[in-house]
Amino acid sequence: MEGRRDYAGSVSHDYRPGPRRIDLQRRSILAGEAAAAEAEVEAALDVPEDRETAAFFDVDNTVMQGASIFHLAKGLHKRKFFTTRDIVGAAYKQAYFRIVGVEDPEHVAEARDGALGFIAGHTVAELEELGEEIFDEAMAHRIWPGTRALAQLHLDRGQRVWLVTAAPIEIAQIIARRLGLTGAMGTVAEHVDGVYTGKLVGEMLHGPAKAEAIKALAAREGLDLSRCSAYSDSSNDLPMLGLVGDPVAINPDKRLREHARAQGWRIRDYRTGRKAARTGLLMAAGAGAVAGAVAAAGTARRTLRG
Fold first, then answer.
1. Would the pLDDT of 43 be above 60?
2. Catalytic site residue 58?
3. Are 151 and 248 within 8 A, CB to CB?
4. 50, 58, 136, 269: the active-site residue
5. CATH number attached to the domain at 20-67+107-272
6. pTM greater than 0.90
């Protein structure tokens, strides 16, 4: 894509115990600023009627059932981007996410340390092209209709609607475009001459980094955050939700639900059918996930031996 910038040498690898917290904050700010800088306004609403107001939507389990980066990874695995062994770890994290309904901080840390390493050596254009195919085959039918309707309400009011997600920004932008939204902010992967290095610019766009991205975008676009809305399923997104005047919990995890009730925030849950059977299916789902992982691991071993 013409006009895209290369990000090289931007990330510090100094993790001394003393400044670690400061370094994490700096990486979050860098990730947020990079995401906002890469955010492109799609054609859905180039000239909004209400220029000071916008809505921000988390993606995973808010707009889409499950984790978008897993669906991406699975699609890329199908296309021989990496081995079966690599996908086993992703399958476990996806099963945990689907069953428990929250993101494990340790999983997030692991994902950060090795995030998007599987696309190293591939081009931005290649990921964008395949991302379109993977959206059609694995993501389109997982969009929550209720959340999509909420986004459309904001568009109908002349407001801009942005996705804010830890998924790669290239995929986030595809999802936004396919849903007719304004644009998206996501994790920015470093690339040189259009080829991914496997490193990130700062952090994954997760937790505090999402808040930094929204602040940077608001400054650029002249938004009044007190008039804006934000939607998420996860308590990890409390920094983002706390920035706006209208925070909404969508399919919330336990901590976010409790916080939203205490604060008087709106709560919307579109998992009714799944929740009705959730208790009865929990152990069966867990057993199925374990069995699938074991089978995949066996395949990986056979592949490596071959």
1. no
2. yes
3. no
4. 58
5. 3.40.50.1000
6. no
